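Dear H.,

Thanks for agreeing to be a second pair of eyes. The structure we're designing against is below in token form, covering all 74 positions.
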């Protein structure tokens, strides 16, 4: 599922959607985290009291990888 999400994100932030691409690049080098309260610890970090902000943050990691590639190419 990570590979499928990566493909969709690459399409979403491609030159065809230059405004979204620009916004992603403008985040600079800050850490991107998908915080949630619905216990999704695969794509993000759950901030409920039970989970205490644990999670793999795969969505954030993919976005940061793609952003890094974009800034290298610029």
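And this is the sequence the design step returned. I haven't edited it by hand at all.
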């Amino acid at each position: 599922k990570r590979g499928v999400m990566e493909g969709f994100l690459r399409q979403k932030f491609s030159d065809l959607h230059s405004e979204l691409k620009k916004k992603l690049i403008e985040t600079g080098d800050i850490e991107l985290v998908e915080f949630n309260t619905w216990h999704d610890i695969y794509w993000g970090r759950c901030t409920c009291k039970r989970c205490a902000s644990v999670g793999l943050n795969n969505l954030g990691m993919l976005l940061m990888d793609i952003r890094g590639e974009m800034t290298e190419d610029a």
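Two observations from my side: The radius of gyration is 13 Å. Residues 58-73 form the longest helix (16 residues).

Warmly,
E.
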